[in-house]
Records
---
Amino acid sequence: MNIICQISIAAFVSYLIGAIPCGLLIGLSKGIDIRKVGSGNIGATNVTRSVSPIAGKICFFCDFLKGMLPTLLVQYIIKGAPIAAIICGMAAVLGHMFPVYLKFKGGKGISTAAGVAIALAPLPLLTALAIWGAVFFAFRYVSLASIIAATMLPVSAFVYAYFNVGGSVAKSKQTLIFFIIIAVLAVVKHTSNIKRLLNGTESRFEKKGSVPDKGR
C-alpha cells in the first residue's frame, strides 16, 4: 500500500474517531439530551452546565483524546511522513466540528484541537493553555478564553520555532499552517459569541443552573 493510501485511510479513521459525540453520549447516560438544554452545544462547557462539573471534565478529556490519540498513533504507524499526523489531526478536529453521526452538527473543536496540538507541539499548546487559563479566570468567559488561546497558538509556535525550541514536527511550516487554520476555524465557529461579547450580552461561566453561554 502506498503512502497516499495509508494517509487517506488514517485520515478517514481519524475523522470517524473525532466525530464521536462524547458530550451527547455522556448526557444521554444521565438521561439528558445535551442538544436540547443549555446552549445546545455538545462540548464540555454545556455538559458542565447542563449535566455536572465532573461530566464536563470527562467530556473535555474524551474530546481531547479524540485529537491526541490519532495524531500520536499515525506518527508510529506511518513513519517518515510528519504531514500524515497533521492531516489526521485536522481530520479529527473536522470530525468533532462536523460529525457524520449527528448530521454534521457538532461542537466548536477547541478541546479536540488541543489534543492534536499536544501531540504535534507540546510547548506551544501548554503556552496557549496558560493563556486560556489567565483569560478565563480574569473574565470568566469560556468563549473569549478559547478564541484568544486558539489565536495565540500559531503565534507561540512561531516564537518557539524562531528560537529553535522543540522537535522537527513542532517547528515545521506545516504545523504552523495547521495552527493558523485552527485559529481561523475557532474564530469562525465562535462568531455568535464574538457578537455577544462586543454588545455585552455574552454570559459568564457559572455552575449548573446558571444562564448558559455558547461556549465550547
Note: The chain has ten helices and no strands.
---
Amino acid sequence: MTIFQSIYDAINSVEVNTVGSIYRLVLSMLLGAVVGYERKLKGQMAGVRTFSLISMGATLAMILSIYVPQEYMGLKNGDPGRIAAQVITGIGFLGAGAIIQMKGSVRGLTTAAGIWMVAIIGMAVGLGLYWLSVFASALILFILVQLERFEHKVSLGTENRIIRIHTSDILRDISDYRNILKKHRITLSNYFVDYDYANNETRLNLIVLMRDNTDYIKLFAEFEHIHPTKSITLANQLSI
C-alpha cells in the first residue's frame, strides 16, 4: 500500500484519525473562506476570517461528536449528535450579531443566513461528506452572486423609505410630487406635512416604497424644480 493510498483511506475513514481530521479542518476553512470572500466584497463586516473560523469550528465540533462516543462509549453507544445540536443553537448568536439595525432598516440578514449555512457545511465536512459540502458551497455562491444579479435585473427588490423635503414655501398641493413619484415607479404610501408659517416654510415627509435601483439623483433634481427647496433627505425612519 502506497503512502497516497494510506492518506486516502485515512481521509475517508469513518473513524476519527489525525490525518483525516486535519484534512477536514483545512477543507472547511477553504470553503468558509470562499463564501466569506464574497460577503467581504459586498462590504459586510463578517468576511473571510469570520466565515473560515465558523466553518472550522463547526467541523471540529462534529469531529468531537464522533470521537467521544467512538473512543469512550463504543460505536453503538452515546449520542454523536449532541454536540452538533449545540452548534446549531449557538450559531444563532453569531447570526444575530450580523444583523444590524440602522434607523429602521435591517441589514445583514443574508450574511446571517450565510453564517448559519457555513456552519452546517462545516458539520458536513466533519462527517466526511466532502462532495456534498463543496456542492453546497457552490450553491451558496450561486445564490449570493447570480440570484442577486437577477434581482437587480428585474428590479425585484423594494424598500420602504422616507423622502424629507424642506421648502421655502407653504405647500398647498403635492400633486406635482405625486406625478414625479409615479414617473419613477415609486409608490406613495402616506405623507406628513409640517408648516412653519412664521418663516414661510414647509417640511414634507413622503412615505414611499421604491425599488433598490431607483435613480435618487435624478429624482431629487426633479423635486427641486417644483418649489424653492432648501434640502431633500432620504431617510429610513420618519422624522418631522
Note: The longest strand covers residues 201-211.
---
Amino acid sequence: MSTIKLQGMKFHSLHGALPVESIIGNDFVVNISMDADTTKAETTDDLNGTINYAEVYDLVKAEMAIPSKLIEHVAYRIRKSLIEHFPEIEKLEVEVQKQRPPVNGEVTYASITLNYERNI
C-alpha cells in the first residue's frame, strides 16, 4: 500500500455563504491524500499501475469551478468524484481550506477534512 498526495492545489473560486462571495470569490487550497496499491507501477514503471495525479488535479479543478455555499459540500463533491474515477483508492482524505475567511478577526484559513475508507 502506498500513499499518493497532492498538496497545496490553489484555486480562486466562488464558494461562500455570503452573497458577495459568489461574486468576488476567495482563494482556496485543496490537499488530497490517497492510499492505493501501486505495486504494478513500482515494478513496471507504467503509469497505468498507479493513480495519475494529473487526472486527480483535473477532477479537483472541475469541482472547484462549481460554486457552493459551503466548503463541506465542495469537499464532498471532490471526494465523490475521486472515488468514482479511481475505484482502486482504499483510503482518501480531502481537505479544503478557505483562505482569509470573512470573520470578525484575523484567520489564516478555515478548513474541512473529509475521509473515506473502502469497506473490504
Note: The mean pLDDT is 96.
